[in-house]
Amino acid sequence: xxxxxxTSEDSERPPAIEPSPDxxxxxxxxxxxxxxxxxxxxxxxxxxxxxxxxxxxDYWCPDCEIHDDPVTAEEYCAAHGHREARCTVxxxx
Length: 93
Ligand SMILES: [Zn+2]
Ligand SMILES: [Zn+2]
What we know:
Strand content: 5-15%
Low-confidence stretches: none
Mean pLDDT: 84
Radius of gyration: 16 Å
Structural class: little secondary structure
Number of domains: 1
Largest sheet: 2 strands, antiparallel
Helix content: under 10%
Bound molecules: zinc ion
Order of helices and strands: EEEEH
Shape: globular
């Protein structure tokens, strides 16, 4: 056993996103894995973030491979219905 986790491939991946009605999700597929442009300090990778008023173009869904405005999980489920017994979009059960 070693405590060195840097060799694990999983350590390269960002953590899973817990379903929540407050999550912003892809308007098309409901994925919470949408990405947006954010500010990170160049020299130390310090996350600055928190931009208001992003354009639709600034969002990206890696599942649909489209740029689109996200919606909240709550809105997505109101329009498309919940998924699975415990909704994988908003977490409702
Ligand atoms: Zn999508
Ligand atoms: Zn739901």
